[in-house]
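Task: complex structure prediction.
Instruction: return structure tokens for all chains below.
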Amino acid sequence: MKKDEMMQFKSMVIFNDQISPGYCKIRLTAPREIVQSRPGQFVMVRVYDGIDPLLRRPFGIYDLGVFEPEYPNMPKQHYLEILYKIVGRGTGILQSLHHNDYLDILGPLGNGFTMGNEDDEKILVGGGFGLAPLYFLAKRLVSVSNVKVFIGGRKKEDILCVTEFERLGIDTYVATDDGTLGSMGLVTEVLEKYLSDGGKRRTIFACGPGPMLKSTAAIAELHGISCQVSLESNMACGVGACLGCVTKGSSHTEEKPDYRCVCKDGPVFDSRQILWG
Amino acid sequence: MKKPDLTVEIAGIKMRNPVMTASGTFGYGEEYSSYLNLERLGAIVTKGLSLSPKAGNPMPRIVETPGGMLNAIGLQNVGIEAFIENKIPFLRTVDTPVIVNFFGNTEDEYAEMAERLDKIPEVSGLEMNISCPNVKQGGIAFGSKPDNAYSVVKAVRESTIKPIIVKLSPNVTDIVEMAHACAEAEADGLSLINTLTGMAIDLQKRKPVLANITGGLSGPAIKPIALRMVWQVSRAVDLPIIGIGGIGTATDALEFMLAGASAVQVGTANFISPGIAEKIVHDMERYLVENRISAVRELVGALEIQ
Ligand SMILES: Cc1cc2nc3c(=O)[nH]c(=O)nc-3n(C[C@H](O)[C@H](O)[C@H](O)COP(=O)(O)O)c2cc1C
Ligand code: FES
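Output:
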């Protein structure tokens, strides 16, 4: 990757809102070069200047944009948005930030999705804040391809972004474990049913909890559909230096290890490159 | 005032300043090359290397703890062949000394590694990680008994004429005793500390957080222990010392030098700010200017104790 594509920058919070119980969306100022980010790439965010929490947190890019400056003659301000679930100290602090607070950001990092053949129907499968990179991807895909999105979660509150996808004119299929939204059961079951017509040429893009990705990969394999998955992992460096974020590649054996860095070799992988545990 | 002199010489390795990167936290240099100028660093220490590639531990391998992190990477590395083939070509283009951190499963493997590294002109020095288990001795770490440390350092000494820096483990009863053993085996320098063995538990799951159960603690949390150990060792042993542990600012680095370190390594801090090592050099220079100190060497061991 070229130097100018990676940046470390101070960023100001524009807004930071709850979008569903336990989930938030934050809009952050960014330098102009952020427009080069590709769907599937992520940023490492330092939420606090001190030593606790110490490490940055990775977040997939949800959206990019520009807003008009407050005063004429000022340059246009670029921004990026991320979605996050409040799970620990880092995201707890993130939630407490307000307009005009500052953060430190590293990114964009990693490899994004490969858009694939325009004529293929694009199937997006996701859950939780895994929807973030899929929304960014959908925005790019929708002008050239036919896009469908399958969203799964435990309960209604875990289903994010439905209106945002619908606003793009994309058909959404929702499933929840408890049936509080969409059909009851797993979203991968809904996907199976949808794919059973067998007909069209398709590409699958998935991001979400491990089990959802695993069964999506299996379904893709079964139907002979190419599938890209965006993986999540604990990360320390985000640039391929610490080897703390690895996942097993398909040719992995004890004798000939095949570990891939989620941060640098991914986070997007062809599902056949991964050894699904 | 003229520019202060930041140069140091450690174990015969001439460096433009005392700020190095710590093994395992900086990859093979290339990973960070777009964030900082590698030619502003004193030296680059590469990821721990072994004869054959090593798979490393299962996931999860890292977890954050207050003021620090635990890692159980398991010394995953590409092995010496791939290092020579894929990593040396880049490092050759960088005008900064490269120190290769390495380890073995047996004494013979250490010696063989030293012999192989001895032949690589791009390698300025060797850093021996002796915190790993000796498989021939029931897996106790080479660096946990003075006799074993002496013997493995001696074996490496006989296999290379390049400078040998022994990286000491803090997981010992008496680190001074270990330092003496390394000095006796004719090491050229010591670096300390490696990570402190620790663990983290998930109460909800009633399980250890790391797949390996235990891991090595690094980051600001270990700095006071590292400072104490550097101070103890520097008073007792007549070898140059490289201070490591929780360094994230020029102030941290200079404190280690007062305690007796001739140079320092920056580890976990690279993860937080990829350009931090260069910034530390810059801030160190400014400190010297502001305090009218003409050479950073003057601060080594300059701690005042009543
Ligand atoms: C992710 C990670 C990997 C490491 N790998 C190695 C290694 O391969 N060999 C080694 O001698 N030390 C290794 N270390 C130890 C560091 O070089 C250093 O001694 C330690 O982290 C303390 O310094 P710090 O607090 O500045 O990080 C590793 C540390 C971390 C955090
Ligand atoms: S997070 Fe450090 S290698 Fe991926």
